[in-house]
Design a protein that fits this description.
2 domains; UDP N-Acetylglucosamine Acyltransferase, domain 1; 5-stranded parallel beta sheet; alpha/beta; Spore Coat Polysaccharide Biosynthesis Protein SpsA, Chain A
Length: about 350
Amino acid sequence: MRSSRPKTLAKICGKPMGTHVLEALFSSGVQDTVVVVGHGAERVKSALSATAPSGMEIHFVEQQQLLGTADALSAALTVLPDVLGYGEDETPVVIVVPGDTPLITPQTLRELVETHIESRASATLISATLEDPFGYGRIIRNKDGRVAHIVEERDANYEERKIAEINTGIYAFNLDVLAPTLRRIAPKNAQGEYYLTDSIAILSEMGYLVSALEINDGVEALGVNDLIQLAEAERHFRRRINRKWMSRGVTMVDPDAVYIAATVEIGQDTTIWPGSHLAGNTQIGNSAEIGPDTRLLDCTVGDGARVARCEAKSADIGAGAIVGPWVVLSPGAKVEPDTSTGSFKILG
């Protein structure tokens, strides 16, 4: 992604991409997380600390040199034992999730851990079969169907690139195999980096079982490396948000023409018309009617209010009020309950 901002801070539906990953982990049952930071470390720490789920403990570790994913996990290992606080007879499971996979779901992460434990594997990866696997590492299996190793796109030969099963970069490892495995990884690739993907071949060659959870929805595997993929992730995440609100009693006349940020709250029996854009900490009450062609940022809308063709920022719209059409509410504007603004106005 061509930006001076770390890609984990790129926003999707109003939240940093890395925050969506943390929320998925937290909802899956993970409470203690180690976040490895590199470029823009202080900005990443500040943003994720401010937006992470309440109750999640985050421990930041800085990767001194950006030498690849295995090196990043090695940095995390410097604090992991203390973070986990396990007993002598325990073998903790470590989940590894890239910060640029915002569409991964809590259910899939739970299934990853369940598959890992039930198969008694030392490592388990999440794979997906894509129509267009370009850019992703390919899963190479033995004749018996077991995972043997992973080859990255840039290091793959012609036959390997035709494989449609890809590595999502999401893993579960037994903690006790991580350190010795990471020490065996060497930078034998075109980039001179330490690939975490090489750990799969190492474990397999050492006789450890590597299992795979193949997911049906390849969208969850989407990694965000440029602005095109960022827009695609935004589109998928927006649809998830809209489905969530519709399942809770919000009517959307055309969901594909409605944008709702992940930070917005909406009451039941509210109707959202096409062209509506709800962002920031906007809160909509019950039985309200928003749109068409309305943009609200950090606004409060009371129960039963009607807001049409309106642009508003940090405004307070009372219950039962009628706003618009063609009205602009400046920051701090207040529309009293059960009143009407009329049309073609700028109110401050």
